[in-house]
Amino acid sequence: MKIKSEWDLIAKISSRIKSKGITLPSDSVISIGDDCFAYIISENRYGLISVDMSVEDVHFKKQWATPEQIGYKAMAGNISDISAMGGTPRFTFVSIGLPENISEEYVLSIYDGMLDALNKSGTILAGGDTVSSDKICISISIYGETDNLPVGRKGASPGEFIYVTGNIGASKAGLSILLSGKKELIDKYPFLIQKHLMPDIRSSATAGIMKEFSPTAMIDISDGLLSDLRHICVSGNTGFELNIDSLPVEEELKSFCLESDISYSDMALESGEEYELLFTSEKDIEQVNFKNIPVTKIGKIIDRNYYITQNGKKEPVQIKGYDHFK
Amino acid sequence: MKIKSEWDLIAKISSRIKSKGITLPSDSVISIGDDCFAYIISENRYGLISVDMSVEDVHFKKQWATPEQIGYKAMAGNISDISAMGGTPRFTFVSIGLPENISEEYVLSIYDGMLDALNKSGTILAGGDTVSSDKICISISIYGETDNLPVGRKGASPGEFIYVTGNIGASKAGLSILLSGKKELIDKYPFLIQKHLMPDIRSSATAGIMKEFSPTAMIDISDGLLSDLRHICVSGNTGFELNIDSLPVEEELKSFCLESDISYSDMALESGEEYELLFTSEKDIEQVNFKNIPVTKIGKIIDRNYYITQNGKKEPVQIKGYDHFK
Hints:
The structure is a homodimer. Chain A is of the alpha+beta class. Chain A has helices spanning 6-19, 67-83, 104-121, 170-180, 183-188, 190-197, 206-213, 225-236, 251-260, 264-270; strands at 28-30, 37-42, 45-55, 88-98, 124-132, 137-146, 161-165, 217-220, 239-243, 277-281, 287-290, 293-302, 306-310, 313-316. In chain A, the strands form two sheets. In chain A, strands 7, 8, 9, 10, 11, 12, 13 and 14 form an eight-stranded mixed β-sheet that branches. Chain A has a six-stranded mixed β-sheet with strand order 1-2-3-6-4-5, with helices on one face. In chain A, strand 4, helix 3 (104-121) and strand 5 form a beta-alpha-beta unit. The radius of gyration of chain A is 20 Å and the shape is globular. Chains A and B meet through helix 1, strand 2, strand 3, strand 4 and helix 3 of A and helix 1, strand 2, strand 3, strand 4 and helix 3 of B.
């Protein structure tokens, strides 16, 4: 039988584990399905571990991105997983599969990009593995810690507000420009291209978010705002109401969408690989900055069903998401 | 420039890290180049992290091994890295790249094999990532802990003795039989095939080794006995004298080598992916068993140079090893 979906496969693996009578140890806090695995180190100290794999021609293409950008983005995604639990990234480990004919300079440039992302978040490259493979395959594991109870996807309650860091929509727009191959568009919209190839790292906002908002649920936007918000709502058995007019969207995205006759709100709702932090909180704050990273209120958690409001009009919403096996 | 060797690449990455002024934090104990990264959790408690990647047609072939065997072996290698530091494996994380046309049953069987290895060592599958790729790519990260100072490759001193668990040589012999494709040989030497496809897991011997031997240096045999012993000697700036006659070699290996007119000692010295533990200790013990796993004295650490002795004759030895980029 063919694999139905990534989520279906993960569910089946989880049930295999349960069927063998294996249970998680008593010091684990959060497990399969969240951004990180979390376990208790000691009182008020938690360990966080996350892993991600990026494959050439699936997650990145050599003709679109420099090796520095490829390395940077792969690492940024992992750092983001630790941030999304409210943690501080500490050590990272890189296993890399490399084609035999690849140049040493190219490989070292991938590492330069990874080290750039690591430096921005104060994380250390602490180990790894190098093997040969047909295509470049970058597998990153990251270890982080937090003094607060790790913030999982589950925990949002009706009446709470929904927040997002930075800006959204640009990554998908940047990708569509790169896919079009149109040089004039690539030159005209550098912000969109940059956001797709080298997304910002939000780890420096985590401490502020944890202190000011005490988030009840958090996730980083990797599948898309709607899709990741659904993860939070499914985990917490709630619904949401998103305010389209308050979504933090850059002017450049609006210009591009106007020129291309596409809805910027659809772009913002569906754009994946943003690596912005999406969280819920009881606190009601319109907008705040932490270390120059804006945090914007974009909606609220409700009992059930998913709605978006635009120009005062409230409508139910359908959710699409990226699946590796569909 | 082409990549010269795996070790050269790792050395260049390490020097990039240093050139950026990045230093390891004060709580790290052992880093790049050893079986695991090790850091201090608290007094007398250390965290160990290791990562490994296995790629289809590089590390395993679908026509030689069942999916269970592929999963089992990939996991066994990682568990072995934690054992080689004297640690107890705790949590593991699997990132897997899968071709689009692969069947769900095949993938779940890979996980069955991994779970089998995990169960044998009391380790938990705690997370992972599933992505699409051209060929199967399994990247495993493992977290373990130890109450003792982690045992690295460095630390052996002249006058100490060299020990190895289990038996050696069978993995390479099993591989050569599989490479030959000869059905009659495959049926005749099941132990050799088994050792190559599903190497024993020695994690249950670690506690005994730590208690009885207080190892000064330890490594798991992944490149080959000579090659891995050289890692210990280069790290500790010593030499070795290996006694060929005392190498723990199974009768089936001797029979196969006799039939094939190859030297069983060469096979034992060069066979990689054995995942036996190789360590040095001040203690002088000929042979001891821990939970049915034999530990055998095979030589001693000397000031400099590498020698093997056979039938009382001592000769210098040349060392070959597997390199992914050669």
